[in-house]
Amino acid sequence: MLIGILQAGHLAQEVQAGHGDYVRLYSELLAGHGLRFQGWNVVDMEFPISIDAADGWLISGSRHGAYEDLPFIPRLETFIREAHAAEKPMIGICFGHQLIAKALGGRVEKFDGGWMVGRKDYMLDGMSYALNAWHQDQVLKAPAGARVIGSAPGCKIAALAYGDTILTMQPHPEFPNSVLTELLDHRAKGIVPVDRQNAARAMLDQPNDNARIGQKLARFFVAHQQVDHG
């Protein structure tokens, strides 16, 4: 099964030097289930020829806001609506979570509670997961027909399900603690309040549940497997 990874942004060069960009991180997160991966840099206006160019889609995080006036955003929203109408399996992470919600009628804004950074406890489908967060924007109104399946203190709409074909979440299960360390070292200064940086650093030695979520997301794709591109 071919999974198309739509990169809606690029990780900082300091992160890429040791960990690669989003395509590598998601490929590693979802490894071990017979899935194959191909990336498109949609943030740079590199789009698939159609929604059928892959069997399933994953929309990455981004430094951009879903509400920004950037040329790739309306085109990606159209892609999302077409994939949804065709019942193509799709996963959205952080920005992907937000843009899918916006494309399908929800509302995304900067959260007045500010940044969520570092290890947070999420309830997803009735189970607890410790996952890394890195965001200020949030989905504040879910689209009609979407089910809220995840939440965390300070993030009421942390995960959404649209029927059984779209699954989205606000945290970053593709970010191991080593990536979060790089982000704190190279991206947080002047952006994330110091007290929140310090709180995130204090949790860097704690384990997270990335692997558990990776299994869940991979199984979501495998359950929708139909045709593999050769």
UniProtKB/TrEMBL annotation:
Residues 45-177 form the Glutamine amidotransferase domain. Keywords: Glutamine amidotransferase, Transferase. It comes from the Bacteria. GO terms for cellular component: cytosol. It holds the Pfam family GATase. PROSITE patterns: GATASE_TYPE_1. InterPro entries: ChyE-like, Class_I_gatase-like, GATASE. GO terms for molecular function: transferase activity. This is Glutamine amidotransferase. It comes from Actibacterium mucosum KCTC 23349.
